[in-house]
């Protein structure tokens, strides 16, 4: 009887792991099912109410959990060692300890698949938006990069500057983050699958120290929070906030969240977001153009105002101050995480938003007009 009871306990402990494994291996084979039943159904039913509850908490729960994680693990480990030494049945204590670890791992993996992992297998955003798929030339990349430079420069004219000639927000950082939940309202009128819950973008209190990892923002699937590093230059805050909001809508792939962030910012009607979106998209496209043709890159950059150039330099100078082993390690971990979830390019996938930007411009007939 005891043996049967133990077997049932292990079965309960590992059932979430089995379910997570089935989702991981099966859902990629059925993208339409994942899209319409899971991403637009189960995910929203589970995530949106919880996102609302977490949004009522004014601070980052994710950050609190991370800070408390180490002392919690040390305390549990000390308690386990004490029970192992002082308890009357060390074999039973060891079994319970291992089962507890398996239960926690199993549960956390299942929650991850529910709130993020399965969304890697939904239908491609390009297909959902009916964007053309084609090979684009360096000249077409140049045309788009130049247009983004012009639009970023025009958008920047609405702002004042700080003492260093760098753009200053038109609202406070707190208000900017509060406005993030409205970024997708306009574009959602054309793309009805863009549904947002009641999400509050949270500022991380330890943002300066977070920069040593090279992280600008993170969506935590276990707390369902969009967290943003607010120590970074303000020109990137809007884009990062919109990117993390895209994750809360059920989009897991980084290049798709980058593209949605650009599109949401550009159509938001909010000056701070508009400039951040155009500037960030320009930087991504500009980097690709630089690798492809330095002469065309120089010509495209001529469309940037002096203010835009200063803002880009401010970003580069900021991140140069945090380069090191911590950042390299953090980026390596992120790279492995993305690859495990089926995106072979890893952290390089962030840059693949450029292809989506080119497809979007193509869908607008932009290339035929400007040839």
Give keywords.
single chain; mainly alpha; 3-stranded mixed sheet; 16 helices; globular
Description of the molecule:
This protein has 371 residues and is mostly helical. It folds into two domains: 2-121, no CATH class; 133-370, no CATH class. Helices cover 64% and strands 3% of the residues. The chain contains 16 helices and three strands. The chain has helices spanning 2-26, 31-55, 61-86, 90-115, 125-128, 138-156, 173-178, 207-210, 237-248, 254-266, 271-292, 294-301, 306-320, 325-340, 353-363, 366-370, and strands at residues 201-203, 217-220, 225-228. A three-stranded mixed sheet has the order 1-3-2. A hairpin with a 4-residue loop joins strand 2 and strand 3 (225-228). The longest helix is centred in the N-terminal third of the chain and has 26 residues, at 61-86. The N and C termini lie far apart (79 Å). The relative contact order is 0.13. The mean pLDDT is 90.
